[in-house]
Specification:
14 helices; Aspartate Aminotransferase, domain 2; alpha/beta; binds pyridoxal-5'-phosphate; three-stranded antiparallel sheet; 42% helix; seven-stranded mixed sheet; Aspartate Aminotransferase, domain 1
Length: 405
């Protein structure tokens, strides 16, 4: 059948792939609406309500009539609060006019990648990674170059710095790094980061760093922010947001940080895409940063407990290579033994767990267009401890059952 003009999209629209986590969220909700009980380790959003003092601030802003457009860069109060937060935590030396407030970290990623990637440019992305970086790169004619991470039994995933170095070519424009890392739950060591940073500086690349999980750290893990590196403003576009830390996923509030000359240019793109972040949400953002952080601390402590429980239960299965996550709220275990034994692919396994056992995990392919996707699943433990216990026991039993079938 001939296509109507309305279906004749430009080629890149066919090239990009949406967020699998959202498709499975919709599917799980549909099954739940049909009366099926689903335990979800799917989408990455804290199960906690946004803390009350933040909600109250948004209500107050609404009642005060603070409902109009704001500066595209964000209200000065919020940019000052973000600068204050980053400077007091990381000694970052950020000025308020080096910040753009965005509608979630996702929009910050869009602006960061869109601002630099030209047709033909290569963008180095660890495999696996959060899916959006590669899609925006492709949209602007770039080519994602995936560098597989290394799995170490008993430790988890590491960056392969030598492989990153050898992936750099004359066409390389950018490296994208997310730390702590979705989907593996890894936190990169200061030493790994220093070596990566050295490549960026030597090869004159842009480094986009997404630290949306920088408050989710477990055990004694040492986290070094990219904002602690010397002269980062010459190399780095920094992304962070409120969704995860303050359990504000639906509010859509994030930000990017870069040197002022770059910000001034990026603002032209930002105003064209979204005008500004919602005004009353920005007020709530100020409260989040400047107000009581104890709900965040309590949530993170609980997440660490869940991580341990999940690890302990999944470790019982010979079909799941579980490990203890160091940060974020994910585990990305390998499940290749069961896939090989049954001759099924990872999507088949995910559907089996969902339809036959009512447990949702995400296929590795949601985080990888490379090899890593094919034999891993991702579990988000941002869900109630009872669900973590029950759901992970079901998974262990379901895989045992499948292996015998
Ligand atoms: C690494 C990473 N960056 C960015 C985002 C998007 O966050 P936001 O809700 O602030 O757009 C996510 C959400 O899952 C993420 O995992």
């Amino acid at each position: 059948m001939e296509k109507t003009p309305i279906l004749e999209f430009q080629r890149m629209i066919y090239e990009i792939k949406g967020e699998t986590a959202f498709s499975y969220l919709a599917l799980a909700r549909k099954l739940a609406a049909q009366g099926k009980r689903i335990i979800s380790f799917g989408i990455g959003q804290p199960d906690y309500a946004t803390p009350a003092h933040i909600r109250e601030e948004a209500k107050k802003a609404l009642d005060d009539g603070f409902t109009g457009y704001t500066e595209t860069a964000g209200i000065p109060e919020l940019r000052e609060a973000i600068a204050w937060y980053l400077n007091s935590r990381y000694g970052a030396g950020v000025a308020p006019d080096e910040i753009i407030v965005t509608t979630g970290a996702k929009t910050a990623i869009f602006i960061a990648v869109a601002s630099y990637v030209r047709p033909g440019d290569e963008v180095i992305i660890p495999d696996p990674s959060y899916y959006a970086y590669a899609q925006v790169a492709k949209l602007f004619g770039g080519t994602p170059v995936y560098v597989p991470m290394i799995f170490e039994r008993g430790y988890g995933f590491k960056l392969d710095i030598e492989a990153v170095e050898s992936a750099v070519t004359d066409k390389t424009r950018m490296i994208v790094l997310n730390n702590p890392h979705n989907p593996t739950g890894s936190v990169f060591t200061p030493e790994q980061l220093e070596r990566l940073y050295d490549i960026v500086v030597r090869r004159k690349l842009i480094l986009v760093v997404d630290e949306v999980y920088d408050n989710f750290l477990y055990g004694n893990v040492k986290f070094k922010s990219i904002l602690e590196f010397p002269e980062w403003k010459d190399h780095v576009v920094y992304v962070n947001g409120f969704s995860k830390t303050f359990s504000m996923t639906g509010w859509r509030l994030g930000y990017l940080v870069a040197r002022k000359e770059a910000i001034d240019r990026m603002l032209e793109l930002a105003v064209t895409v979204y005008s500004c972040a919602p005004s009353f949400v920005q007020k709530a953002g100020v409260k989040a940063l400047k107000g009581d952080w104890s709900p965040v601390g309590e949530m993170v402590k609980e997440f660490e407990r869940r991580a341990k429980v999940l690890y302990d239960i999944l470790s019982d299965s010979e079909y799941i290579e579980a490990y203890m996550p160091q940060g974020a709220f994910y585990m990305f275990p390998r499940v290749s033994r069961i896939l090989e034994a049954k001759g099924i692919n990872v999507e088949g396994l995910v559907k089996y767990l969902l339809y036959e056992h009512g447990v949702l995990v995400l296929p590795g392919t949601a985080f990888s267009e490379g090899a890593m996707g094919l034999n891993h699943v991702r579990l988000s433990f941002a869900t109630k401890i009872d669900h973590v216990i029950e759901g992970s026991k079901i998974i262990v039993e379901a895989l045992r059952e499948l292996s015998r079938s």
